[in-house]
Structures are given as structure tokens and as C-alpha cells.
Design a protein that fits this description.
The structure is a homotrimer of 147-residue chains.
Chain A (H helix, E strand, L loop, with lengths): L4 E11 L4 E4 L1 H11 L1 E10 L4 E7 L3 H14 L16 H10 L3 E7 L2 E2 L5 E7 L6 E12 L3
Antiparallel strand pairs in A: 1-8, 2-7, 3-5, 3-8, 4-7, 5-6
Chain lengths: 147, 147, 147
Amino acid sequence: MTADTVWAQSRLVIATDGRGTYDITTEIGREVNASGVARGLAHLFVHHTSASLIICENADPAVRSDLEAFMARQVPDGDPLFRHVDEGADDMPAHVRSILTQTSLTLPVADAGLILGTWQGIYLWEHRRRPHRRTLTITVNGEAGTG
Amino acid sequence: MTADTVWAQSRLVIATDGRGTYDITTEIGREVNASGVARGLAHLFVHHTSASLIICENADPAVRSDLEAFMARQVPDGDPLFRHVDEGADDMPAHVRSILTQTSLTLPVADAGLILGTWQGIYLWEHRRRPHRRTLTITVNGEAGTG
Amino acid sequence: MTADTVWAQSRLVIATDGRGTYDITTEIGREVNASGVARGLAHLFVHHTSASLIICENADPAVRSDLEAFMARQVPDGDPLFRHVDEGADDMPAHVRSILTQTSLTLPVADAGLILGTWQGIYLWEHRRRPHRRTLTITVNGEAGTG
């Protein structure tokens, strides 16, 4: 017998307070649980080019502040190299940071839930200094079941 | 009632004029429309290690020239660090640029089309200086329907 | 007639000897062949934040040693920028390297096998200096068939 294939798609809007990483693991896990998929994949997509998605160590907050410090040195705001500056000194760096990380993530689902590693968290990374509302689409696909 | 699951797979060959970003949003959208998928995912894969895929701001061309300038500074051609130089000063930098960006992209499909953000375009990024023909495989999977 | 949809999911554990790239193309191809999927997608996910996945040129080993040299310069061990240092000088650099590359890869499947480009290999990139056991989940999804 073949299990039914389920497709579930939903939107998530995250209000950010400006540059920084926002843990969305719980929200994504909830969408996966609600989808009715027992085994398959979950896909996250952020509809912006100045915010991105990462999977990052979730235990020590210093990891994420170090990551921010690394990017600030690698892709500094106000870099005289950039000509796309109309929207501010952090605009072009936000696009570069976004391209060096991920616009989408695909994650395995088993037993009706996300199966991340122990130290893996899912983060939305806001690259602009000002607060923004960021829209994500979550698509869950797999075999129907409750685990 | 469960909608039928559709799998559509096609090839796309892009002739590049050498290093630079090539907007392929229209071509990808066309494949998605032709697939018969109403809701699901589209996957793009580039079969090369010296060209890559990015989602980038699509309004101001300066964003993409700034991006090129950033990479030229970060991963310069002719870097004395590199030993893999037989195929030219731009060969190893092309591999590094490819690895720092994406070999594949997965994008959400709804209402029988791609649902990108307003400012998101899909680009093939040619990293070699000479013109090349680049092969992509596009796989669209989802529930059948016309939106 | 619609072909049956197959979902196959398996685990792969790779024992690494410490920092470096490990070719897993054969192992992944074997899982794809065993899945019974003729046409679809294969998804690889590494359950760690200090090891990652890349698709890289597979002919000249100098490409991968150059890549390692590039990362050693870009994200050096013992960088005084980092505060997350309890687990060693290579710990935070491993997290950064992981985020600059990929935690997951999605690859096209056709004719019951992976369809990579001629020069594309799949590598697990261990970023820690000491040996580790790295767990991957492989999910293969597509139309049933033997090619």
C-alpha cells in the first residue's frame, strides 16, 4: 500500500527589530506538525533579498554574535566599493550577506516532525539595521501519517 | 480527494558571454507554467562547478555590478594562494565563487506559478571570463492543476 | 497513467579524520539507486553545525586543497574576533565555514540515478581539526521505476 502524498503550504510573517538572528525553529516545527506529513521534506523560503535563512548552533548565543561580527568585518556597512547606496549604507551589504547565506532551506521530516541535529536551530537573519516585516513560505511535502 | 502528483523535468542551456549574472527568471517561470503543477516546488540545478545560481535584487543593475566587485576583491583572479592554475587565472576563483553561492535553488510554486518576492530575480552567475554553454536541469513537483 | 510516488529515507554516518573534504558521491548514488526512484530529487542533510556539504570539481585534488587554503585565510583558526572559544580555536571558524557553505543539498534524479555534471562530486566538508562521526539523512522522492 502506498501512503497518500500530502502538500501543505503556509505563510509566516516575522517582525524583526533590525539586524540580527531570529530563532524560528519552533514556528517551523509547528507548521510541520500541522501539515499531516509523517515522512518527507520541509522547504522554507524568504521572499526578500536583504534577509536570509541559516541553520546555526543553538546553544551559545556568542556563536551568533561572533557570526554577526564576522560578517561586519567581511561585508562592512558603508564600504566605498559599493555604488548601490540610495537606501543606506547597510543596503548593499545586506544583499551580499543574503547571497553568501541562504534564501531557502530544505529540511528532513520523519515521525511527523523536523529531525534536526541536537545543536541545530533555524534562524531568520535580518541584514538591515531597521525593523522589517519578513515573509516566509513554508512548503511541507511527504507521506501522510501521524508518525 | 487527493490531487494527482506531477513530476516534470526539463533541460535549459544558457549561452553566456563570460563572467556576469544572467537573468533566467522568465525561462524558469515558463517551465513552471508548462509543468502542470499548481502548488509545489521548483528545483534548479546547474551542472557545473564554475557557474552558480543566486536569487538577487532585480531592480537596480548596480546591485549586481557591486556583487561582482565584491567577489573580485574577495576571491581575486590570479591569487598566488592557488595551485590549480592550468586552466587560467580565473579557474580556481570560479570554483570558490561557485561554492560560496549555490549550485541549486528550490523555489515555492503556488497558483501554477513561481511565487517570488517583488524584488527577487533568479540569476545564473557565470564565473569564467570566456563564454560558456551552461546546462541546467529544472524539476517541478507538486499537485496537478492550473491554479 | 500516473507512476507511484516513492519516498525513501536513510541515514549515513561518515567517520572523518579531521578537517578536510570527503567524497561521498558513491555512497549517495548507491542510496539513490536503492530507493526505487526513477525520476525525482535526492536531498542530503548533515545534522551538524561544524561540518557541511559542497558540490566541487572532482578531477584535480588541488582544487580542494586550494579551497581549504582559501577558507584558512578567510576564516582563520584562533581569530581574536571570536568570543566562542571554549571548544577550541577551530570551533567558531567551523560554524562560520558551515554557514558560508551548505547544510543541505538537493540533486536531480533521472533514469534511476543521480545526474551530476561530469566534473561534479559531492563532498562532506569536515571543519573541525579532530576526527568526528557525521550523520547525514538522505531523502529520495520521485516517480517509481528502474529507469
